[in-house]
Amino acid sequence: MTAHPEAGTPFESAVAELRETEFRDDITVREIATPQGLAPFAIALAADVRPEGDGESVYGTGRFVLLHDPEEPGAWGGSWRIVLFAQAPLETEIGTDPLLADVTWSWLVDALDSRDAIYHSESGTSTKTLSKGFGGLAVEGDGAQIELRASWTPEGPFRPHVEAWAELVGMLAGLPPGSEGIAVIGARKAVRD
After folding, report:
1. How far apart are CA 150 and CA 84, in angstroms?
2. Are 182 and 144 in contact (CB under 8 A)?
3. Closest Cα to residue 127, out of 145, 107, 109, 106?
4. DSSP H/E element including 118
5. pLDDT in tens, the chain (193 residues)
6. Is the terminal CB of the chain with fewer CB neighbours within 10 Å at N or C?
7. What is the largest CA-CA distance in the chain?
8. d(CA 121, CA 88)
9. What crossing angle do the helices spanning 100-114 and 159-172 adopt, rounded to 10°?
10. pLDDT at 187
11. CB under 8 Å to 164, separation ≥6 — which residues?
12. How far apart are CA 113 and CA 108, in angstroms?
């Protein structure tokens, strides 16, 4: 957290709500260090889909940051802001789909709406990346990746927002809602950084 709020404050209540959220078994969520300088109060979470023994995931990952600034920055339209990141490797053929970026954004909106999450001032980008290895990396072949970065101002309880984020991370990794415990056939190869 960026600052240590007093017990019983709205931020401390929000943190408790996030920490009490249960996630599907095949998505590992943990608290991580928050980005500095974005707000007086913040909590950040990381998610990995079906991580390997070393904690890395070949399926997908994400970050969720809840920011709180009692001064209500004008761009936020309130005292709270959620910032998220989600990414997953893709089969190259899927990465070339011209509607992929639009579908990715719609999955976030659908996940929020299905939980009756109240929000406004949303913004974001959906980026598809195609790569081809050369030289020593030629053996890795072609790759593709989808990445979504988004932010919005939440209203009401925070749990629906973090649950929607976790669903999005799973969806990008090929795990639709209700598929917990179902085997994933052929892990997609992670794109090189």
Report:
1. 5
2. no
3. 145
4. strand 118-132
5. 444 555 568 999 999 999 999 998 888 999 999 988 999 999 999 999 987 777 677 888 999 999 999 999 999 999 999 999 999 888 777 777 778 889 999 999 999 999 999 999 999 999 988 888 888 888 877 888 889 999 999 998 999 999 999 999 999 988 877 666 655 544 444 444 4
6. C
7. 58
8. 25
9. 150
10. 44
11. 108, 111, 112, 114, 115, 117
12. 9
The whole-number pLDDT of residue 191 equals 42
Amino acid at 29: V
Alpha-carbon distance of 107 to 88, in angstroms, equals 14
- The upper half-sphere exposure of residue 27, i.e. CA atoms within 13 Å in the direction of its Cβ, equals 32
> Under a CB-based contact definition with an 8 Å cutoff, are residues 191 and 143 in contact?
yes
In this structure, are residues 124 and 151 in contact, taking their beta carbons and an 8 Å threshold?
Answer: yes
CA separation for the pair 165, 157 (Å, rounded): 14
- Tell which residue, 151, 147, 149, 169, has the closest CA to residue 48: 169
Query: What phi and psi values does residue 175 have, to the nearest 5 degrees?
Result: -110, 90
CA angle 87, 31, 88 (to 5 degrees): 10
DSSP states of 1-42 as a string? --S-PPTTSHHHHHHHHHHT----TTEEEEEEPPPTTS-SEE
Give the other-Cβ count within 10 Å of 80's Cβ.
Answer: 24
